[in-house]
Amino acid sequence: MGEFIEFESDEDADRSKLVYTFGGVEPVLSIRPGTVIRATTLDAFGGVLNSIDKLPSQVCDSRYLNPQTGPFFLEGAELGDTLAVHFIQIEPRYKWGVSASIPFFGGLTSTPETAMLQEALPEMTWIYELDKVNRLVRYEARESKFGLDLPMDPMHGTVGVAPPLREVRSSLAPGCWGGNMDTPEMRVGATCYLGVNVEGALLSFGDGHARQSEGETCGVAVECAMDSVIVVDLIKHMQTPWPRLETDEYLMTTGSSKPMEDAFRVAHVEMVRWMSELLEISTMDAYQLVTQTVLTPVANACDKAYTVVCKMPKAFLKNVVAMKGMHEKLKKTTW
Amino acid sequence: MGEFIEFESDEDADRSKLVYTFGGVEPVLSIRPGTVIRATTLDAFGGVLNSIDKLPSQVCDSRYLNPQTGPFFLEGAELGDTLAVHFIQIEPRYKWGVSASIPFFGGLTSTPETAMLQEALPEMTWIYELDKVNRLVRYEARESKFGLDLPMDPMHGTVGVAPPLREVRSSLAPGCWGGNMDTPEMRVGATCYLGVNVEGALLSFGDGHARQSEGETCGVAVECAMDSVIVVDLIKHMQTPWPRLETDEYLMTTGSSKPMEDAFRVAHVEMVRWMSELLEISTMDAYQLVTQTVLTPVANACDKAYTVVCKMPKAFLKNVVAMKGMHEKLKKTTW
Amino acid sequence: MGEFIEFESDEDADRSKLVYTFGGVEPVLSIRPGTVIRATTLDAFGGVLNSIDKLPSQVCDSRYLNPQTGPFFLEGAELGDTLAVHFIQIEPRYKWGVSASIPFFGGLTSTPETAMLQEALPEMTWIYELDKVNRLVRYEARESKFGLDLPMDPMHGTVGVAPPLREVRSSLAPGCWGGNMDTPEMRVGATCYLGVNVEGALLSFGDGHARQSEGETCGVAVECAMDSVIVVDLIKHMQTPWPRLETDEYLMTTGSSKPMEDAFRVAHVEMVRWMSELLEISTMDAYQLVTQTVLTPVANACDKAYTVVCKMPKAFLKNVVAMKGMHEKLKKTTW
Amino acid sequence: MGEFIEFESDEDADRSKLVYTFGGVEPVLSIRPGTVIRATTLDAFGGVLNSIDKLPSQVCDSRYLNPQTGPFFLEGAELGDTLAVHFIQIEPRYKWGVSASIPFFGGLTSTPETAMLQEALPEMTWIYELDKVNRLVRYEARESKFGLDLPMDPMHGTVGVAPPLREVRSSLAPGCWGGNMDTPEMRVGATCYLGVNVEGALLSFGDGHARQSEGETCGVAVECAMDSVIVVDLIKHMQTPWPRLETDEYLMTTGSSKPMEDAFRVAHVEMVRWMSELLEISTMDAYQLVTQTVLTPVANACDKAYTVVCKMPKAFLKNVVAMKGMHEKLKKTTW
């Protein structure tokens, strides 16, 4: 059993002091492999969008979106290693979540880079009641009387390490360092593998969602502050060029790029190479196997890069041990 | 109970006489709404790729790929109506299926339009044994000793009607007329809705797969001839701009375009508008609801256009009747 | 000197009788290689949008956009040959041209495939006075007092043959058969080379523009009916996979696809292969040469596929004869 | 006349000490608006690729590509201002330039993000002799006897400031901060306008090319060290969301994104808004004007984002003063 650390985000902190990037920030803590961290994360709006009477453009500052918890310096982590983070708990901190339509942001609107001359969609805020006992998320329409209870399915939209090539990237962007991938697969029970680019890796995470669709269509899920528990570990001498996930049911690869077919291509080339290695079959045989077996949900279609996930059912991979058995090890973590 | 018609594809026919397009071909039969058709479909290679010792480039002619069964003229179908086709049976006709790596075709290679200067990937053929009793599909690696039993999950990759604007489109392309969408959702129990563009709609289908991944990575699923039973019906005065599917569990929209984000956008705009109409909520409220609820698998990432599917769980839509109840009606078809 | 034929489009014809596709239409004339054709072409709106007080949505029918003149059956043309068409004259027929903002059409708006939830841009019509003596095109702002004289630079936006694979394509789409490429390079003095896909090739052309930008930003150039003179010839046993152009100054390749980088890739792979062949250098040496020499204007960023042109200055290619000297031959045509 | 400063890059420096990012680096100098800087820049390989017998993979380190000269802290520059840099001299420092085919890098190959399973293209190096007297660049084929003299047309591929949102970006990427746009328009006589994101703006530049095509097809132009002279100035209280250029002949906007149509969209939306403002016409009238007037060359189709340039001929804009007359002012700089 590893060390146990508690780390609470300061919700009343000066917003300019929070962490909004991967890379470029001093670590808040140094941890050893195997450490369990209980940490709070702020919601993507830093808590300021908390009523249907507030609009993002009124209360948010584009410099202060998607604050992250961390970064944590993982002792011993070096370029060429892989960090593993397993999600033990992701629990909404409060009884509400929030979503919004933000001008020129989202999957079904023009944006600053998919630039058009049309007017923005109307700005609007939705508050969701979170019923933690019955695990429900309550949708209420804003412009008519209509409501719906949806299953709670908490996850972290943003998990990542410092990027390569000395880059510092906004927590709004996903990429090979992880970041804002916004996949609902990042729920309790999942292990996320991230290639280490700098000494200490510098893990951060945040952007909790009580639930979201595949694609996070309008760009804003049911955003909420989280009480999360993670365990962080290190796989020495194993490179992971793009983030991977593992659950009891699936091995998963991800790609984040534009156009979306490039995200697809990255995730599937990674899966082909991974299957080739794990099953000791040729690249062409692995390409063929992947063609008949994987599931391929879109993760986000709204961020600075799009993320596509490729999922291989472990049911097809009897007796195969991936990532040196790290997932099996971490799921047994006690704290 | 509707009329019952049997229609057998001639496997020994002159290949040049088969149907390789949507539109541009005389109907083989005229049917009334409600007609049940038992039909055979040829595999995408017209049956000529039937051994690992044959290569696509040796036995296939690019003019004769993906032959379709049909077209069927649906009496009473006019521009502005919607054709519904429900899949009652999709059963592999033989005990084998085939896949292949085809030069400059597929999702992880350059192609004639994603043109590059690199050499083609190696050409190779895989034969799958189909165990119809135990519903298994047998993968065997070509370049090492490795095999795997996969669940049989038969489907039709290509289902469509004549396109709009007098166009005639190759059965290799998907679009608003349906066509080569290659989604595994087109299995038994699904109802597919297609907007009618010309008198009689001119439904064709084919491209049976014993199974495939989401994305059909290398471009070739486990291709096989099928014995299928469909029932075809007509919804008058209802436009369906892009193909939709319905099962007992999901309402689904599709988009087929490039880049892949455009396929995503089409499918999700269609779903937002559909939810707005069915639930009598505003467009913005529907956009918000879709953002928290849908599943979004990639269907194909290898064809002339990519296809993305958007799936709304019916569990969230109590008492909602879509497409005038056509799916409920057709699933009760007896024959 | 070839045969001389006059062919006048009937401006008062029933619109439904005009030609709106490449392929799928019976030829209007059979011609021999070397034939000079004087032909009129209608504007892209068939002449019905002729006042700032009319809007496209009021006077146009989406089925009747971009009528073409032709198709001409070129005797002796077979699959594997190349048709050459040289533009001797492209002269606006009347003293006006027209442009418009059309809802959900154009390069800076969402469209049916780049689908978004935003409202359409305002619909509006601009009439341009054409001063044929001084070769000027008169822009007048609609919403303020501002005018500008632009140089007349007449061209045909749409030139093509019947597509391969039995397809019939709308005159709104460009592709390997040519079609709606909308490049300003298609002006007097240019020779366009098109691969032959069906017996007789079936050349059509139209969509005259008094001028346009590179990209045809809003999707509608200064549209006008034209009096044009072309000479059509045949290069036997030479394949041209994608349309090429030649002028006294440039050899040009084109690519039409989405996303736009695919159009770029096609045009540049074609140019690399062409240079490799003409200069008898390796593919890698040709790739290197192209990297330091070509000009690459966007042709259209608004149609069903985007078109990118790659231009190699002939000044760098002393003594090189391309396409069997066809351009040199055709520019000497007398009539 | 402004201050004059000389700044020489140390070609023998420890490579790890050079500057490879925009943002994230301490300024080397603080300058006042109007300062003339004579500076040397290293080539994109830091000088180590200097023979056809060397290959990039042997002598280059991916962490040390495209070193920049700077950053220069511009006194008084704040968020909301625009930095202007005018190129007075860009002169190749040595008598040679270099290009190369780099595995999985370039416009006509798969890359780490346009990921495919194909083998890399052959790696190869080309050395160009630079004839500074006759202003010629000498291409020599590697795999056959063929050579060609091309006009020298020196330019800087990379010019930029620190990015917004606290990001630090590799000098291999272009974006709204400028960076690796690789447009041949960045030649002597051009003024480049860059929006200021951080105090002092932090201008850097480098990546000299003796010449390149539009698109920089293989990703490597005729790379060379440069002796350059620039003058840097400041426009207070004027935002420039995306880099602009101005010459005596053109006003230019740029967009850098993926897919390439997004780069097109950004550049053209910027041009429409700029014309609307300069000519005092409505957005729709400006959209229409741009549609008939601009030139649109691709700048790069090989970098982390693609760059498209939109050029408005000043001949159409009589008496219009753009960017507060800064270009006219800077072109008169003496030193």
Short description:
By secondary structure, chain A is mainly beta. Helix content of chain A is 12%, strand content 35%.
Can you describe this structure?
Four copies of one chain form a homotetramer. In chain A, the strands form four sheets. A nine-stranded mixed sheet of chain A has the order 1-4-17-6-15-18-19-21-20. In chain A, strands 3-5-16-11-14-13 form a six-stranded mixed sheet, with no helix packed on it. A four-stranded antiparallel sheet of chain A has the order 7-8-9-10, with no helix packed on it. In chain A, helix 2 (260-279) packs across helix 3 (283-293). Chain A folds into two domains: 4-235, Sandwich (Jelly Rolls), CATH 2.60.120.580; 244-320, Endonuclease I-creI (Roll). In chain A, a hairpin with a 5-residue loop joins strand 20 (298-300) and strand 21. With 335 residues, chain A is mainly beta. Chain A has helices at residues 56-59, 260-279, 283-293, 326-330; strands at residues 4-7, 21-22, 29-31, 35-41, 68-74, 82-92, 96-101, 124-131, 136-140, 147-151, 155-160, 169-170, 174-175, 178-179, 191-195, 201-209, 226-235, 244-246, 250-257, 298-300, 306-313. Chain B binds chain D through residues 108-110, 114-121, 259, and chain D through 108-110, 114-121, 259.
